Amino acid sequence: MSGLAWGADTYAHRGALNAYYDAVEKGDAAVKGKTVAVLPSSVDEIVPYQNKKLAAQIIESGGLLVSEYAPGVPVEKWHFVGRNRIIAGLSMATLVVEAPVGSGALITADFAVEYNRDLMFHTACFSDNADFISGIIKNKLDKDFACGKVNKYKIENTPEKFCLQGAPVVNGYKEFCQAVAEAPGFQNSPVQGNLFE
């Protein structure tokens, strides 16, 4: 499940579709791996428009497009945060792959924690490229904060913050499965750990 956004979401949906079609091609009777796209728009207005074909492929493969908006409802900026809320709520675990400081992915992480879902980060969040992008975004956020355009929380909401609280970092599907097999919530967090003793 992802948000059909351009970038990591697009690749996540494409990966699930490729796995589905590979299984169909091999004649696997128990084909798994359908993908679900949670939209920030109504289903009659795919956002971003560039992923309209991908949305059609998701439906053709037996996947789903999910929206809380009726057809014809125009897209609003705040719908994107609403989409993140739904993704976290419908998922047993949230894996953050791309998360510059203050990003929507980190809003989804906040919702996952609030909903007591497992949360983990992929090592890609801590690559040199991710650090470079976060640095550029943080500079802009710092300027916006100085002008009163954003709050301090947006600047402080980073993958590192969640990891310090116990969210594991994984590198691949096997490690993801191992982390999900642990007790719900942050596996190493004293607060979460006390809930499940």
Overview of the molecule:
This protein is mostly helical. The chain is 48% helix and 9% strand. Strand 3 (93-96), helix 4 (104-114) and strand 4 form a beta-alpha-beta unit. The longest helix has 19 residues, at 128-146.
> Helix and strand succession?
HEHEHEHEHHHEHH
Distance between the termini: 30 Å
- What fraction, in percent, of the residue positions are helical? 40-55%
The tally of strands reads 5
**Radius of gyration from the CA trace?**
18 Å
Q: Biggest β-sheet: count, sense, barrel?
A: 3 strands, parallel
Shape: globular
Distinct helical segment count:
9
Which residues sit in consecutive blocks of at least 5 with pLDDT less than 50?
186-197
Strand content: 5-15%
